[in-house]
Amino acid sequence: MNTFLGFGREHIERHYRKTGQCVYLHLKRHVIEKVPGASGGALPKRRNAKLFLDLEISSDLNNDDFEYEDEAKLVIFPDHYEISLPNIEELPALVTIACDALLSAKSPYRKQESDSWEEELQASKHAKTLVQLDNGVRIPPSGWKCSKCDLRENLWLNLTDGSVLCGKWFFDGSGGNGHAMEHYKETGYPLAVKLGTITPDGADVYSFDEEEPVLDPHIAKHLAHFGIDMLQMQVTENGLRDNDIKPRVSEWEVIQEAGVKLKPMYGPGYTGMKNLGNSCYLNAVMQAIFSIPEFQRAYVGNLPRIFDYSPLDPTQDFNTQMAKLGHGLLSGQYSKPPLKSELIEQVMKEEHKPQHNGISPRMFKAFISKGHPEFSSNRQQDAQEFFLHLINLVERNPVGSENPSDVFRFLVEERTQCCQSRKVRYTERVDYIMQLPVAMEAATNKEELIAYELKRREAEAARRPLPELVRAKIPFRACLQAFSEPSNVEDFWSSALQAKSAGVKTSRFASFPEYLVVQIKKFTFGLDWIPKKLDVSIDMPDFLDISHLRARGLQPGEEELPDIAPPIVIPDDPKDHMANHFVESLDIDESSVMQLAEMGFPLEACRKAVYYTGNLGAEVAFNWIIAHMEEPDFAEPLVTPAFGEVASSGAAALGAVGLDNQPPEEMVAIIISMGFQRNLAIQALKATNNNLERALDWIFSHPDPEEESDLALDTMDMENNANANILADTGSEGPRIKDGPGRYELFGFISHMGTSTMSGHYVCHLRKEGRWVIYNDLRVCASERPPKDLGYIYFYHRIPS
């Protein structure tokens, strides 16, 4: 009653001993099965006049077969003296007021659910009495388009007259022209169903009158009026209906192993996690993380010590939250099989009785996403970016003498060669993920792909059902070969020639990690710069040997490039120089601006994104937009200092160049806009004589152990620059690595279903006790057909010598 923190029964004594707090409010909800026939078909009766506790009600239990009774009482330690509430006579007025305030307070986690797609829908008031016109309208199985325009997406079927009309327009340029809403205003017909979402389990229904998504308990009847049989309908991953797709072709079906009877798994290590609303990316990553012994030992093995030494507010302590989550997944307390008597009862009654299994990681998600513009939202996210975000937090919150993230860390040797002088430069950087490109040109079924594409276009033109999907088959060895091949270095400045030249870069492993994480780079940008995913099948091996990618360092006969920075040319008139520099700094790449604007972002925001990322391209600017789109001045015009201000400050800066190499403020601002701290930006520019490109390389290869991480390290800017942006704690002896042989065995993979990282669903497969197990949020089952060829992130562990 002093800190307003909640504790389970097994931890309350620890908190009392640690803090001396002796007064606690005990809250409990009793779920009681009603006597058959007691409700008479009415809503469940409640023994109290109201449910005064704002506790989450299981959707499985929220039916006519159960009723609830809430109980609250004060418990005074150490004697465990209990006082039932309400009790105005025995308690001081201040205590009574505090208890009433707590009991009537809304749960902060329920507040977070307001934006969640899992929010429970209510039945529409129009569903039971909906009038449907007998106008002979029949909806074809495909080839739909808006009856008032030519749009073929985001289409809604009005359930009164059978009109097919487009939905509203969205800020990202998708959606429609709002003809469905206009039709409602003209006719008053209230309900519409979204075409492409109709499945045997239901459909997406919207009530124009109630202005919200609703349930239609009579949806099957209403659809049958227009000739639609729900039992024959399927939903495809792009939202377009196609009931001619053959079984187990859809990515969603294959990855989730639909159509196969899967055996549920129970016990330690087989605990599911509730989806909190597009949080499947978090669930999949954490299941993989806590299957690794080093993380199990660090957090679950040290749980008593972590809990004993946690701060007074454990909700804001990373190690406490990690230990709590790990214990929930590994203890087996939340993954218990049903009793044999319960199974027999279910069979006799021909009903399904819900099992209270799985954990809800609300507190963990709230903490780990705090301050992050993307992970704190209810939008879908990239599992790879979350993995790096998690490793960043593990690095900054050490537990014990060993850091469990050391098992992922390795060194990359980058060899850069000047094509003209043939001289080389070797550098090293820290990395955590091996990113493999998808070698589309090496597909082994090119003829089938070409034929499929032709058939698909013909089907779309003729409004016929699409042909059976053909997925590109890419050999893994081709992806590995593409990883090892040299890549061109743009704007390479050769210190041997003292001029710009052609350069190539090759990456090799300076060390091999204990656990190798391999990401297949499936996500890319289309010609319209809309993020998309390459739907490919790659024959990922169970056993992987990358020993041939071991770095060899400077070889005999190779000559190193001189360690000389590009010369700084200072003109006679500093003002003229800064005037030219100012004009150049405002030279915004208009082609990149237009590419971003075509995606639906405000024009001024696009200009700022391209300006603050130094004209490095639309992809980098897109990352800037995603990280800054929630700022209040996001769409405000770009504001730069006046020319006189720039000239004077520039002259001062130039005067400082000869003294202490103080970098120009414009370059510092560009680096800061990418998520780095100001002093790190200045240090990098000083070390590279104010060369922006080399300064970024310097930051990636020279992590600063004395620099305290700030909130900027948690932002999207930092992590969109992929692995190299995680600053490892190097110490005086260099990065902590666990080098060894480059031979590995696959033990897990995370798969993504959907067309981009901004949508879809994640599932995790792990190999445990000699068999594969699928973790699909709360559902944990023995896998029968693990889709190893469709994974996105793969986890390998080193094979001992």
Short description:
The protein is of the alpha+beta class.
Would you mind describing this structure in some detail?
The chain is α+β, with helices and mostly antiparallel strands and 801 residues long. Among the domains are: 1-35 and 63-106, Herpes Virus-1 (2-Layer Sandwich); 121-234, Herpes Virus-1, CATH 3.30.40.10; 590-629, Helicase, Ruva Protein, domain 3 (Orthogonal Bundle); 666-701, Helicase, Ruva Protein, domain 3. The strands form seven sheets. Strands 11, 17, 21, 22, 23, 24, 25 and 26 form an eight-stranded mixed sheet that branches. It has a five-stranded antiparallel sheet with strand order 5-4-6-7-8, covered by helices on one side. It has a four-stranded antiparallel sheet with strand order 10-9-16-13, with no helix packed on it. Helix 8 (293-300) packs across helix 10 and helix 21 (665-673) packs across helix 22. The longest helix is centred in the C-terminal third of the chain and has 18 residues, at 643-660. The two termini are 57 Å apart.
Mean pLDDT over all positions:
77
- Strand elements, count: 26
Sheet-strand content, in percent, reads: 15-25%
Radius of gyration, CA atoms, in whole angstroms: 30 Å
CATH first level of the domain at 121-234: which class? Alpha Beta
- The helicity comes to 25-40%
List the uncertain runs.
Answer: 37-50, 113-119, 170-174, 234-248, 569-585, 641-661, 704-732
Structural class: alpha+beta
